[in-house]
Amino acid sequence: MKKNIGLLIIALLLCTLLTACGHQHKWNEATCKAPKTCEGCGATEGTVTDHSWKDADCETPKTCVDCGITEGTAPGHNWNDATCQEPQSCTECGATEGAALPHDYSQWGEAKQDSSGKWIFSRSCSYCGDVQTEETDGPGMRWDHGSAGYVEGTTLIVSVFADDVGTAWDFTTEEDCATRDLVLTNLESATTWLNRQIGVYGVEANFIFDWEANPDLYYTYDFEDMYLIRDDVGVNKVQEEYIMNNIPTEKLKEKYQVEDIIYMFYFNTDENSDVSSCAACDIVNKKTETISIFVRNANSNGFDYVSAATLAHEIMHCFGAYDLYYASETIPQEYVDYCKRTASMDIMHSTNRGSTVLHLFTPLSAYYMGLIDSCDEATDWGLGKSTFSD
């Protein structure tokens, strides 16, 4: 009996030796992937730990720093609008996108003497307050609308059908092709009307613009991530850079025997746009005239595309004419109110729809465009002087 008990004990010991690892465990600490684990035999003890989460950021979801597993989605950037000092930036992580906007400078206006007696033009940016100054020879005025180049002779008009971050042209569609055709029709009507009105003052003016007859006057361009549906003159700087890098200005001048070129940028805006077409120029060098034409806006009632009168109005800016529907350093509020009260038909106050110009080219515009030396209306109302005045 004792012998049998001894054999049983020996058998139990053998089973223990066969089933046990036979060494001291060396434990790795538990993680969120695996419980506490022996390096040698792989035995485990306990359960996995909780994940060690790193909060989500703009581009990465909530993430475990130990195992890399993610939960949820990245919330995305919270963008601040771009300014003329900084590009669009994220308030959460500081990331930036795009480029800073051009400055939105006021008109230069009237030269003033500084403490040293020098005559200085100055203008400031409405966004950031940056001030630009330029010394001049004496008292006088300087304006942002038009270089006031004299309108006599031939002017070349280069057309650029432009895309930006919010608008685009698709000339595979009948609608956009029809809009482009209408622009050309209205441009012809506008320039024909201008030739006739300027001729009344004994000056011959001509415009070369027909891109169907002259394909080198037609361009398309995508400004990609830039937003250009704005009515500030800073857009002109973006357009100037494009012109400098893409349009052979000097070759065009030589080919067509002209000195003056206007660059018209057409944007395919819809009826929700609240921005009106505008003209601007390189006021320092007086070389580059650009016009931004927004083919539809909130005032178009769903059917009115850019009219011949609007095109004529904007072209006149390039030769010194001023808007009469808002006050400026040249045009006081009293005169703006008078134009509104009397429903002025001056084309610089209002324009009509369609392909025929019905509004008036007045002596006031002729004065500001240098076609006449004086104008009773400018004198009577105390309006600013023409840039052609002595």
Q: What would a concise description of this structure say?
A:
This protein has 390 residues and is an alpha+beta fold.
Give keywords.
390 residues; 20% strand; 8 helices; 3-stranded antiparallel sheet; elongated; 24% helix; alpha+beta; 6-stranded mixed sheet; Collagenase (Catalytic Domain)
DSSP E strands, number:
20
- Fold-level CATH name of the largest domain: Collagenase (Catalytic Domain)
- Global mean pLDDT: 81
What is the beta-strand fraction? 15-25%
What is the level-2 CATH architecture name of the largest domain? Answer: 3-Layer(aba) Sandwich
Task: Write up what this structure looks like.
The chain has 390 residues and is of the alpha+beta class. The chain folds into 3 domains: 71-100, no CATH class; 104-142, no CATH class; 150-381, Collagenase (Catalytic Domain). The chain is 24% helix and 20% strand. It contains 8 helices and 20 strands. The protein is elongated, with a radius of gyration of 36 Å. Mean pLDDT is 81; it is low at 143-148 and 282-286.
SSE layout:
Layout: H1 2-19, E1 27-28, E2 36-38, E3 44-45, E4 53-54, E5 62-64, E6 70-71, E7 79-80, E8 88-90, E9 96-97, E10 109-110, E11 112-113, E12 119-124, E13 131-136, E14 141-142, E15 153-163, H2 174-199, E16 205-208, E17 218-222, H3 235-246, H4 249-256, E18 260-267, E19 278-281, E20 289-294, H5 308-317, H6 333-341, H7 363-368, H8 376-381
Parallel strand pairs: 15-16, 15-17, 15-18, 18-20
Antiparallel strand pairs: 1-2, 2-3, 4-5, 5-6, 7-8, 8-9, 10-14, 11-12, 12-13, 19-20
Helix pairs in contact: 2-5
